[in-house]
Amino acid sequence: MVLAQYSEAPQRAGVSSGSGNRKQEAVVSGVRGGKVEETTAKVGDGVSPVARGCRQFWRAGDYEDANGIIPAAHSSGVGLDHVRVHPKFLHSNATSHKWALGAFAELLDNAVDEIVHGATYVNVDVLNNRKDGSKMLLVEDNGGGMTPDNIRQCMSLGYSVKSKSSNTIGQYGNGFKTSTMRLGADVIVFSRCPAADGKSQTRSIGLLSYTFLRSTKKEDTVVPMVDFEQTGQGWKRLIRSTSDDWNMNMRTILLWSPFVSEQDLIGQFDYLGNKGTRIIIYNLWEDDEGQLELDFETDQEDIQIRGANRDEKNIEMAKQYPNSKHFLTYRHSLRSYAAILYLKLPTEFRIMLRGSEVEHHDIVKDMIEPKTTTYRPQQLADGMSNNHEVSAVLSIGFVKDARHHIDVQGFNVYHKNRLIKPFWRVWNAAGSDGRGVIGVLEANFIEPAHDKQGFERTIALLRLEARLKDHQKQFWTSKCHEIGYSQRVKPKNTTPSSSKKANNNIVSKSSPPLIQDGEILALAGSNEKSKMSGLKRSENGSSEEDGEGRTIKNRSIALKDEEINCVSKGEGKFNLLQSLEEERVKSKKLETELEEKTKELKEVEKEAQTSLDDIVVLKQMIKEEKEWRDAIEQNLRESLKSAEQTIETLQERVRELEGGQVEDGSGSS
């Protein structure tokens, strides 16, 4: 990728020549045979000089000319040594975003990362192209902006200063290029960086135009850029190479940008205040029917996408079931998706969409009495120990609309505060099992894929998937009856009160009662009889002391738990009471032992489940490894077969040549 770097002598921005009605000439240059070639195009006619070409994103990767021939390679740039990046790679790279809203998310991530530099908003809006009247996208924030060096790094492929940073989302240095090229063929960037570290305030403009590169048949990715530096109350052109280069870059930007004059171009900085970045994406992609892929008309406060992601039935259901709105609409509505894109946002930061603020939404608020649990990964690829820093708090519950039995389920899995897997469906059960169960967790121990729409397929991810599935099964099975489904687990009839009540009602008619008129009848044993005979009762029921000085108070005595069904007279009654007490002690001891054994069994089952999960993961890995090896083996077989055919062809050719030589020899002789 060639980042053009041009400068010229000081001049006040916005004062240079040009108006909307005046004809201007812009020079587009290439280098062929060591000489600069220039083509002149008129600017100011209100129309772009660009041949529109293919406007469908998935077909725009064809880089051939009208005859189907790829242009011959030639150098383009300013004579600097560089690694060449063909413009076709811009399109190939952008195909990582199969979902257009995922591209918007990348641009929102860049703005959210600017919170640490003072950003308080990101504004997403729709503009009109003054040259041809087409729609353009605007993404603007008031963060720290970019220096001339930073904006060149932003336009470069794979460069990121945010990699592995704990407080930023971006890490691969590819999001800006893939996202902007996924939404439109061209993007122009305006960035204003405040003075710092003894350096003056700067303004920078960069143009990444697939249309420009294709139309001029460039073989390198050339990015025209210009910079300005503040001097007192004015601005001067920041020289990085030569003034001729700076002028050529400005002419190229004016020719291929949606702005008709330099004054109009520089006026874009007025929207930024003293710092920030303004991104304008234009020549937006169309669908197969010739309509814009993005829908700006259905909802004037939203940006939606057409096609397979749009389900009219879900849109109508969202109106009826508001607590499930985000599940039903996030696939086609940027407003719905942006509301759940971040787990948390600072209260002072706002996401503005077409003039209206996007209300941040916490999915947990859609749940009925959510349950929280902590998931700790067993092993991590980087060798970190299993501590609270790498654990994930899972919130799980029924969505409030679950009583209507609509098919809403899945887990929102975040990474570093950013939603990676929206409503991840881990349990695809037959019938209605699992419906209504949603969950939220932040999994910072697994790495997202480059498009941030999924995670890298690792053992850690497979284990997490298995555990989430287990949590959903347990939650659903134990609580589905609360939202109107038939009960999956029948309660055990072990209520002690019911058994006690039944036993208390069983009393033998042939046996005398143990308690009568507040007195103990026929307590067995000779010692007991002698004590009973020593008692002297008064008429009012009070008791007096016997010969041994003991006092027995007149009160009702009730036996605990259950009464004896049948007792005999004399010593048999006392022995039976004593045996009953011994049985109670034994029963309590057995209950204690049972509880201990139950706990041990649960631990064993938990270990067994963990081992089973590991076996499932290993089986999956072995299966994938086998499929991979089979594919390699098949490719090798085909290559071997092709090589054998080639050898046979060559051998046949050798035989023909040898035969021809023999004939020539015999003829000459």
TrEMBL record:
Stretches of the chain forming a coiled coil according to its record: 577-660
One Gene Ontology cellular component: nucleus
Record's compositionally biased regions (Basic and acidic residues): 528-539
Gene Ontology biological-process annotations: chromatin organization; DNA repair; positive regulation of defense response; regulatory ncRNA-mediated gene silencing
Superkingdom, taxonomy of origin: Eukaryota
Co-factor requirement: Mn(2+)
Lineage summary: Eukaryota, Viridiplantae, Streptophyta, Embryophyta, Tracheophyta
Annotated source species: Linum tenue
Biased composition (Low complexity): 492-505
Keyword DNA damage: yes
Similarity annotation: Belongs to the MORC ATPase protein family.
Keywords: ATP-binding, Chromatin regulator, Coiled coil, DNA damage, DNA repair, Endonuclease, Hydrolase, Nuclease, Nucleotide-binding, Nucleus, RNA-binding, RNA-mediated gene silencing
Domain Morc S5, residue spans: 332-476
Keyword Cell cycle: no
Pfam assignment, any one: HATPase_c_3
UniProt region (Disordered), positions on chain: 1-33, 487-512, 526-553
A molecular function (GO) term: ATP binding
Annotated protein name in UniProt: Morc S5 domain-containing protein
Compartmental location: Nucleus
InterPro entries named in the record: HATPase_C_sf (IPR036890), MORC_ATPase (IPR045261), Morc_S5 (IPR041006)
